[in-house]
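Quarterly update from the structural biology core.
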Amino acid sequence: MHPPAEKLEPSSLSTKWYRSTFYNALILGVCDLLAPGIWGAMNSLGAGGKEKPYLMNGANALTFSLMVISCFFSSVISHKIEIKWALIFRTTSFTLYAAGLYINNHYGTECFCLGGQVLGGAINLGVNAG
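Predicted structure, tokenized:
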């Protein structure tokens, strides 16, 4: 049985390495560093390189304009839902974008490509920048 919290000294409490502030800041920094590069690679190469120029230019314009709006609220939202859920939310936004590129490449559907890029890019890059 543990003694009450007010009787514990700070030096007697040990923190697991994966719960330390340094580790959390390191993981978040690595994700913030790599995410725009992954988004740019998917945008320019592979399925994104096979898209029509007007489609990708329009989707990029929508993504970056919505990213400006999402940057204002992302730090507040990330604080409220915790970093773990913010990273999960960002990861799922990449799948929307990749699915939109895939569906357009195979079936020629442009609306899902625009919607997937706008939602995925604005969410991910907005949360990244916030």
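Residues 53-107 form the longest helix (55 residues).
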